[in-house]
Design a protein that fits this description.
Layout (H helix, E strand, L loop, with lengths): L8 E3 L45 E9 L8 E2 L4 E10 L6 E10 L2 E5 L2 E4 L4 E6 L2 E6 L3 E2 L1 E3 L2 E11 L8 E10 L9 E11 L14 E3 L6 E6 L5 E8 L5 E9 L4 E6 L6 E9 L2 E9 L1
Parallel strand pairs: 3-14
Antiparallel strand pairs: 1-13, 2-4, 4-12, 5-6, 5-9, 5-10, 5-13, 7-12, 8-9, 11-12, 13-14, 15-16, 16-19, 17-18, 17-20, 20-21
């Protein structure tokens, strides 16, 4: 293969791609989003890329939280997760790989879900339109020999705001033989779905009397709740991409939750203001003018 590697895989919003023609990454080299999200081509078979998808390459994604090695199958808004991007190839000599990954809303695959950060060696986050793409910046070494190869790298993902629903990870992975041309490379892509957790949100009466005003707003937002349980309450605000733009912890000692949120620096748009305590949460849409 040429020294350009792209791996694209699709997982409930994440895509990973490995491409021999684009060693420093397909998006960085003009090939765009090849993960399959936002109506893109979920393969490496066109536009100066590699071959068509093949089943000898199997992209995989698992997601873990904190120090646990146990995969999780659902997310909680605002939490940080490790995305384990990998795969296998049963073709001979496929010693390196490349990839592309995107995370999008299942309800709209052109809408970013959460926030991605590159953590693996020779990887970077790049942007196309409204989407973040994690891709390789150089071909990445696999492990194995003969016709048994494994590939692994990681990224960090902060889950989107409450109410976002299912998230899709689109991944394209390209196993490459490092022969200086595109011939013989073995790409494939997959899609994985990550569901929003319902733990702690079944009680629809939580913070039922919470007031958020003025809404729409141009500056200060007031949060007020009577008959609030004493203790620590968290107020978080997320933008349309699921990124946290504000966080405050309020201590309630008299049964009244009262807080002010300064939105002056926020761009105009729709935000989600989250009120949370003891695993329960309520989100209220806020319009910044």
């Amino acid at each position: 293969m040429k020294q350009k590697t792209l791996i694209l895989a699709l997982l409930g919003g994440f895509v990973v791609l490995s491409l021999s023609s684009y060693e420093s990454g397909p998006l960085a080299n003009g090939a765009g989003n090849r993960t399959g999200s936002a109506g893109s081509s979920g393969n490496c078979s066109s536009g100066g890329c590699h071959a068509s998808n093949t089943t000898v390459t199997v992209p995989t994604i698992t997601i873990t939280e904190g120090s646990s090695s146990t995969p999780v199958t659902s997310y909680t808004s605002g939490k940080t997760y490790t995305v384990h991007i990998g795969g296998t190839c049963s073709a001979s000599g496929m010693s390196r790989f490349g990839f592309q990954l995107s995370t999008v809303l299942a309800s709209n695959t052109s809408a970013q879900a959460g926030t991605l950060t590159a953590t693996g060696a020779s990887t970077a986050v790049r942007t196309t339109g409204n989407l973040q793409i994690v891709e390789h910046t150089a071909s990445i070494a696999g492990t194995g020999s003969g016709s048994s190869w494994s590939y692994a790298t990681t990224a960090q993902w902060v889950a989107p705001h409450f109410g976002s629903g299912d998230v899709k990870f689109y991944l394209t992975l390209n196993a490459v033989n490092n022969n200086g041309s595109e011939s013989g490379d073995k790409p494939n892509n997959a899609v994985f779905t990550f569901s929003e957790s319902t733990v702690g949100i079944a009680n629809t009466s939580f913070a039922q009397g919470a007031k958020v005003y003025p809404n729409p707003t141009t500056g200060t937002i007031n949060v007020y709740q009577e008959d609030a349980a004493n203790g620590n309450w968290d107020i978080n605000v997320y933008n349309m991409y699921g990124s946290k733009v504000y966080s405050q912890q309020v201590s309630v000692t008299t049964g009244i939750l009262s807080a002010s949120v300064n939105s002056a620096s926020w761009a105009p748009g729709i935000y989600q203001l989250q009120i949370a305590k003891d695993g329960m949460q309520k989100c209220i849409p806020v319009i910044k003018q």
